[in-house]
Amino acid sequence: MRTSSAFRHALIAASLTAALAAVPFAQAFAQDTGAQSSTESSNQTVPGKVDDAWITTKVKSEFATARHIHATDISVDTSDGKVTLTGSVASSKEKSRAIHMARKVKGVKSVDATGLTVTPKTTKSTTTTTTTTEPASSSTSGM
Length: 143
Description:
The protein has one domain. Mean pLDDT is 76; it is low at 38-45. A 3-stranded mixed β-sheet has the order 1-2-3. Helix content is 54%, strand content 16%. Helix 2 (92-104) links the parallel strand 2 (82-89) and strand 3 (110-118). The protein is rod-shaped. It contains 2 helices and 3 strands, in the order H-E-E-H-E. The chain has helices at residues 2-65, 92-104; strands spanning 74-79, 82-89, 110-118. The protein starts with a helix and ends in a 25-residue tail after the last strand. By secondary structure, the protein is α+β, with helices and mostly antiparallel strands.
């Protein structure tokens, strides 16, 4: 009976030792798996960021080469293929041209131009200021 009891205690001790020894290996395996999945997911977002940068550059260059669009007054931002235009344009016609040109760029999913305001440009005009002088009033004394 003593041998079976000793054998049983040795078996339990060996089982506990093996189980406790496996815990660090399981943690290391879980960390490796998590690191691999985060690497894969971060690699998947890089092409999207490159595409957005390309779209932004392409839209800006289209604006720069357009005749009736003042590219310096319009800011372009792209996120997941959605182009956001902000700034000011001289007319509603210029605004619609900008929206149309942005939509034509390959990869653009939508265009948000709510931040693009129409503010008519003031032309530089020379304002002449005229000053009038009133004749000096002469006081007449009673003659």
